[in-house]
């Protein structure tokens, strides 16, 4: 039987429906971890307000970002660096927790073993540092590709799409996983690219909805938590789709 996108979508929806409770717990856990790291390590609200005021004043002068940063004080520049580093780390850690958890769930089910949330978390903890490094490398390559031009970013995203699955399931090295992923992904690009573009479109829609919601400070963290959870749930669906395709290709 040939592998079709409709079959993969149907199998992925069925998996999500059957394991919905565990997947929701995992997405909430990853989203909560992201929000907590941001809350603990980001600058205080007073510092953020000063940065926002400075940003508005400089923007009123109609200058670029580079000039804007050069006109800030060393303390403000350090605050921006801290915000960027914290946001990047929390985002990467959230993605790693979700990817590791989802792959552990799918591997357990593939081996006909019962799925328990706490056991699932403990399963991938030993490989967490290497998985974090793999996700960091893949994310960096994709962002560089998107910055240079959109098409290279999509090509790189396609080439590394199977790398976390291969890394955890086959227990190979980071660069070996990327290499094997590239060979497998390009061969079946017609099944992967539409799913990835759909995921990116849904993610951009969530970001758009977030940007147009003007909320008070007390509800801001809760809204960020909700949007992160929805974003991770979309990523969970993409992972199920890719894992199902991977298993069918290996059969």
Automatic annotation (TrEMBL):
Protein keywords: Cell membrane, Membrane, Transmembrane, Transmembrane helix
Domain of life: Bacteria
TM region positions: 20-41, 79-105, 117-142, 148-168, 189-210, 222-243
Topology term for the membrane: Multi-pass membrane protein
Coiled coil regions, renumbered to chain: none
Signal peptide: none
UniProt keyword annotation of Cell membrane present: yes
Cell location: Cell inner membrane; Cell membrane
InterPro entries found in the cross-reference section: UPF0259
Pfam families noted in UniProt: UPF0259
GO cellular component, one term: plasma membrane
Keyword Cell inner membrane among UniProt keywords: no
Main location: membrane
Protein family membership: Belongs to the UPF0259 family.
Name of protein: UPF0259 membrane protein BJP41_08740
Native source species: Candidatus Williamhamiltonella defendens
Species lineage: Bacteria, Pseudomonadati, Pseudomonadota, Gammaproteobacteria, Enterobacterales
